[in-house]
């Protein structure tokens, strides 16, 4: 309660500071429109930075409030709303939003063909078992893939690949996942469709063109590979950094004991689960367990019930066992637990322990069920909920055994694992049937790390169709003037029509949270530009910097974008800062398009703390702590700024 009170007090204090800043700015800005837009900007930054609500909810709220200004304009001292109502929802039909949806579908289509397994096999054949060879291969491959799909999607696809490579080579995942994750982020800068900020950039440039002075030539938009030299330089720098300095900055924990043939050592080391085994027991008529529920038995004896037979058929997996199920005399239970806990259970209760699995032998065979590892990804609807809240065993067929969160283990043997709210990046170890696990591979609430289990291959016979439409999309983007969204949707719908994935799977592949976040922020960017707020902030910033070279202003802008992307989404940072960058460039006679591109690239510089979705995704499986990101990510942040600014000025004329 005290911790919650302290957190609430800090948030209230921050809110008060933001209100005071808004009042101060209202007194110095030149127009009432700029005063209100500045207030909306501060509100957005506050909601994002302090996570009062989720970022998508914050963005939608701000969009709705902007729409209401049309109704409340007289009371606010405005002649009209800050954003015309007829243009409030233009973001949902924007080129950028449709392009992001299509990129996600194309990425899912490529994944459905099993190409990732082929890539993993190739890496293991070529890379051998040494970090110096494995890291460049994994990181370079995921960086290349990330250039044509969302970086968190590329990282999620490669998480099982890295797990498989770690299992077969004995290399700890903690030494492989961070290079992979960082390079997935860096790979998003290789093409104009590799990350949300770059996809959004051209739309923001076109919007800014409308507000340019009459005597200023409109900015040209960027083509698909215009940023490729910059992205390749950043990716190469990242790979070299980890190859040369990886042993100094990367932790080696959690998976050091992992071998392909003995998973029990891995689970013991990473999750604190040792000597766990499965026993089949039958309750005798005078057992004190009769009348108990599954929940009561598990909480009392610190074991997991993974199968039940009450004379009415075997209960196992999803919809089989739930905590409210009552236990009757003669019931046969399949128990999973530590050897000591199972022994105490058998000694204290009237049960008959079978020497080997009998009723459950077939259902629990290694070909049908086992221990698996899964991760809660950013954007999962399960974040903030507990295993008890969602009835995890009944709903998903998962018996939760342990949670690994940033190097901290919570296990069922110590208690509390089912009452712990999930956070993004939590790595879970569960007992499940392989059929249930295969279904989870299609569920966006989970990323399945365990890959080497008996399950049906996806759609390898659709590889040619997937590659055909992927190449066709590239051709349309490169060699025609077709709008980017139309070109990408051609490939996405081609994959659906060719049966690479169904339309339901296409819908499931889209991160609607990202879509609503981006579409809802576009009206705010329009208000910032049209009201003159961006121009005013640019003037004040340049006045504060004084007479300095253009590259100093550009570096300051890149550093500001880096800071913004650490405390809010990279999409939000891009929407807010691109209009500012354009006006700053105009104020010093620099190239406004290059300054806008500087922002879009710098918003990928998110390595210092695990706020980026990719970093949150790998934190649990890699047993990383915040200090690990600060150590490795601090150097990477500086390296990113140096390489990005140098390449921007080599490739483009910023002056």
Task: Give an overview in words.
- The protein has 655 residues and is an alpha+beta fold.
- The chain has 25 helices and ten strands.
- The strands form two sheets. Strands 3-2-4-1-5 form a five-stranded antiparallel sheet.
- Helix 7 runs parallel beside helix 24 and helix 21 packs parallel to helix 23.
- The longest helix has 26 residues.
- About 2% of the residues have low confidence.
Secondary structure topology:
Layout: H1 2-26, H2 32-49, H3 55-76, H4 95-112, H5 115-127, H6 131-146, H7 151-169, H8 177-187, H9 196-210, H10 228-249, H11 263-271, E1 276-283, H12 294-301, E2 304-309, E3 314-316, E4 332-338, H13 339-348, E5 351-353, E6 369-375, H14 392-396, E7 399-405, E8 408-411, E9 427-433, H15 434-440, E10 447-448, H16 463-479, H17 484-497, H18 503-509, H19 512-530, H20 533-545, H21 550-567, H22 570-588, H23 592-602, H24 613-619, H25 626-651
Antiparallel strand pairs: 1-4, 1-5, 2-3, 2-4, 6-9, 6-10, 7-8, 7-9
Helix pairs in contact: 1-2, 2-3, 3-19, 4-9, 4-17, 4-18, 4-19, 5-6, 5-7, 6-7, 6-8, 6-10, 7-8, 7-24, 8-10, 8-24, 9-19, 9-22, 9-23, 10-25, 16-17, 19-22, 20-22, 21-22, 21-23, 22-23, 23-25
